[in-house]
Specification:
By secondary structure, this protein is of the alpha+beta class. Helices cover 28% and strands 45% of the residues.
């Protein structure tokens, strides 16, 4: 796909991270998840569908700063499906965790990118 489409998806993922920093992780994830989105998290079964993801994000996130930096995006020739991957950092009360992530994105009927699958792996350390 064209570089412009890849840049558009990178910009979407960056805006997602900015929203997480400014309004909180819970607000950001619920704003960007597709209705049938899936989240893969360690030590649990896949969380499937926006209602289940809303349940996952009911906890207080006011002490959590979760941001990420997309390193790459690739969009299918159709222009409506793509993925991003990059690194993330979670700061919870001074405890910092770093890792990598991948998100698969699909444009909704309104032409807006929403993630349909999100997964992350911790353990980057101070790299």
């Amino acid at each position: 796909m064209s570089l412009d489409m890849n840049k558009d998806l990178i910009a979407t993922d960056k805006a997602f991270s900015v929203l997480s920093r400014e309004k909180g992780m819970n607000h950001a994830f619920l704003s960007y998840v597709a209705e049938g989105g899936v989240m893969l998290r360690p030590n649990r079964m896949p969380v499937v569908g926006k209602p289940e993801i809303e349940t996952l994000f009911q906890s207080d996130d006011s002490e959590t700063d979760f941001t990420w930096e997309p390193l790459h995006a690739d969009v299918a020739k159709s222009g409506d499906l793509g993925y991003t991957y990059g690194t993330y950092e979670i700061n919870t009360g001074g405890k910092i965790l770093r890792g990598t992530y991948v998100s698969i994105w699909k444009k909704n009927n309104g032409g807006i990118w929403k993630f349909v699958l999100d997964s992350g792996n911790d353990g980057l350390g101070d790299q």
